[in-house]
Each structure stands twice: as C-alpha cells, then as structure tokens.
C-alpha cells in the first residue's frame, strides 16, 4: 500500500511520464479510498492544464502593457546594433 | 487591385527597429523572467541575433512576429542557463514542502485534513493568473524555473534533464515540489 506522500509523487510524475501498469493500479487503489489525495490530484492536474490552456488562449496573458524598455536600454541596444552592422 | 510586389531588401535601421519593437519584446521577456536586467539582456540578444540573420526575414509586416519567435527561444535559453547555474548553489531550495504536508509515515498531517479548502478550479481566469504569478515568485528559484520550462515553455522532461545534465528523476522531484508548493500557495491566496 502506497503512502499519501508516495501517491502525490506519482500523481505529479503522471504529468511527465507514462506510469507503469503496477504504479497505475496502486495509484488508483489508493485514490479510490483517500479523499485527501484525490483532492490533491485534482488540484495538481488542474494547475497544469489551466496554465497551459491560458498560455495558449492568450500568450500575452502575463504581459503588462505598462512595462516599457527604458530609453537608456533602447539607446544602448541601438548603439550595439550599429556597431555590429 | 495591385499585385503585391516583392520589395527589394530594405536596409535595416537599428534605431527604428528598437523603437518599433523594443517595448513589446521587453513586455514578453519581462512577463516570463520577472527581472528587468534579464529581460533587457534577452531583448538585446534577440536584436543582435536578428541582425545577424536578417537575410531570413521577409517583409515588414512579419517583422514583429519574426522577432518574437527569436525572443521566445532566447527566453527559454535564459531560463535554462539560470537553472543550470542554480545547480551549483543549492541553498535556495528552502524547506522540503513534502515534509510540511506529510508526517514520517507519509500520511497527511492533521492540519491538511480539513475539508474547507477551496479547490483550485474555483478560481476565475484572471484570479488564477494573478495568484499563480504571486505564488511562482515565492518559489525556490530552481523549482520555479523547472515549472516554467515544463509548463509555460512546454519543454519535455527529457529535454530539461538532458539540457541540464541531471537525471529525469531529479527533474520529476523538482516539478513535484514546485506543483505541490504552488497548489498549496494558490489555495490560500484569494
Ligand atoms: Zn492518500
């Protein structure tokens, strides 16, 4: 029987690799009986899928339109480009 | 209607370029890196690299998208680099979150057995981002970077582990801790 800690590891790893059949069975057996781990799994899976969905829906979702490249940085970069040209 | 004419290759004006695209590139870089210096550095690298490969670029309309494509790769490179250098300094790891949540037998500690947690999927979209960003910034750096590469930049764990010269299971551990911390943090910030 897996502990809750081991289950949480498998839940996370299931997002990154294919679990073995035995691991899957152990996982599902535990989840069927453990409300806390089921809740953990739901949250972790949602965290992963919702982050990916939102990034695809709006790649700029984390962008702040008020943020600007400083004029010093602009001058510096333009100068660097002119040197290289 | 006029047929579109293939324009001869225009001489690039760096000043105009930076003026035109600098802000939007910087906004993207800053949104992913959350650090002005790093974001400036990456934007500069992008322009330099774009200039070097200016021959591949066609048409003015596509300029922004083309630069953004280069920038995205530079951002991933930057996160990788900082993840790699973070490997030598292993002090920022913080307390192992799993030691807080579970007891010695690996069972949930009593304080996490409460029933009144709101599930993550009850967060509205905007709220989800606001809280995710806040919680990401509180994560140990390696865990934050591993999560960003995997989930925001959609790298495979194989890519991350090969690139960093660490085993896949180390990557899994980093991701497991990152996700656990994030979920835990996001549940308590409304
Ligand atoms: Zn459990």
**What is the mean predicted local confidence, pLDDT of chain A?**
90
Main sheet characteristics of chain A: none
Please name the two chains that share the biggest interface, counting residues whose Cβ lies under 8 Å from a Cβ on the partner chain.
A-B, 46 and 56 residues
Oligomeric grouping of the chains: heterodimer
The number of helical elements of chain B comes to 8
CATH topology descriptor of the largest domain in chain B: Arc Repressor Mutant, subunit A
**Overall mean pLDDT of chain B:** 82
Overall SS class of chain B:
mainly alpha
Fraction of residues in β-strands of chain A: under 5%
Describe this structure in words.
With 85 residues, chain A is mainly alpha-helical. Chain A has helices at residues 4-13, 21-33, 35-57, 71-84. In chain A, helix 1 (4-13) crosses helix 2. Chain A starts with a helix and ends with a helix. The model of chain A has no long low-confidence stretch (mean pLDDT 90). Chain B has two domains: 14-88, Rna Polymerase Sigma Factor, Chain: A; 91-187, Arc Repressor Mutant, subunit A (Orthogonal Bundle). Chain B has helices at 14-33, 36-52, 63-86, 97-101, 125-137, 141-152, 157-164, 168-187. In chain B, helix 1 (14-33) packs across helix 3 (63-86), helix 2 (36-52) packs across helix 3 (63-86) and helix 5 crosses helix 8. The longest helix of chain B has 24 residues, at 63-86. The radius of gyration of chain B is 21 Å and the shape is elongated. Residues 1-9 and 88-92 of chain B have low confidence and may be disordered. The complex binds zinc ion (ZN).
């Amino acid at each position: 029987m897996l502990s809750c800690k081991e289950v949480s590891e498998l839940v996370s790893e299931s997002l990154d690799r294919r679990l073995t059949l035995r691991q899957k069975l152990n996982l599902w057996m535990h989840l069927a009986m453990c409300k806390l781990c089921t809740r953990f799994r739901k949250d972790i899976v949602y965290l992963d899928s919702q982050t990916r969905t939102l990034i695809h829906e709006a790649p700029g979702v984390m962008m702040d339109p008020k943020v600007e490249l400083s004029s010093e940085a602009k001058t510096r970069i333009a100068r660097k480009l002119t040197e290289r040209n | 209607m006029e047929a579109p004419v293939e324009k001869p290759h225009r001489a690039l004006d760096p000043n105009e370029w930076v003026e035109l695209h600098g802000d939007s590139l910087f906004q993207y870089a800053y949104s992913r890196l959350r650090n002005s210096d790093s974001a400036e550095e990456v934007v500069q690298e992008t322009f330099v690299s774009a200039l070097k490969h200016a021959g591949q670029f066609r048409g003015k309309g596509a300029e922004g998208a083309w630069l953004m494509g280069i920038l995205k790769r530079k951002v991933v490179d930057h996160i990788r680099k900082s993840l790699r250098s973070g490997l030598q300094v292993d002090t920022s790891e913080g307390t192992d979150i799993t030691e807080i949540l579970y007891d010695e037998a690996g069972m949930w500690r009593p304080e996490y057995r409460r029933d009144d947690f709101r599930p993550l999927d009850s967060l509205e979209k905007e709220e989800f981002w606001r809280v995710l960003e806040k919680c990401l910034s509180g994560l140990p750096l390696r865990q934050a970077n591993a999560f960003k590469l995997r989930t925001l930049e959609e790298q495979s764990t194989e890519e991350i582990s090969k690139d960093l010269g660490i085993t896949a299971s180390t990557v899994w551990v980093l991701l497991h801790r990152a996700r656990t911390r994030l979920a835990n943090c996001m549940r308590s910030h409304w």
